[in-house]
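Continuing the series of single-chain predictions for the mutant panel. This is the parent chain; the variants come on the following pages.
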Amino acid sequence: MNIKSSLLSLVLTGISIISGCGDPTQEHLARTIQADSFKWELLNAHPPKDEEGISNYLNNAITYGAENEELWMSPKTCVTRGYGDCDDIGILGAYLAGKLGYPRQIIAVGEMKREEFKGGHVLTLLEKQENGKTKYGLLGSGAVFDPIFNSPDDLVRTLNARNREVEPKHKLWNCYKIFNLDSSCFPEDWATTEKNLFDEKIGLKGYTKLK
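Parent structure:
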């Protein structure tokens, strides 16, 4: 197991899950990318066969777009539209990782100041059992971070270290929250619904602080 490619691309594709920023916007992409429901059928008929394949699909098939008002898209909506932000891409990655036998999970990493969440990033969480122990990794549109870490804390610390290697002034994520997409916090049809999957104001409370 090793890091298949730099976490730089994971960091650079991460935009605030609170407000969104950068170009292009999803409003612009909606006018320039034609929605195609056949892409969802094609993806399920021929899903990526490994973690790197998922990362390549996310990178090549989904265009990053910032949101003015946060909407957590279902995998079907994201694929059909052809664009999304970090939480949408993370959710789609988790859906595809589930086809490889991983629990369908995402991890939101963030910056907490004086008990107030200041924004962060969402990624697909890779979790697996190895010799009776749970190991953790990350999956994003630009890279695969293999599940070799003993805890989410170790994973986030390493992400912080890599961020600072690339950009010394990059903010440090000091908290995280793991979401099980098959749990009660998401609707039963979370993979295909057209509705907003998540009430962010409620769901982003209860972060775990780094030890």
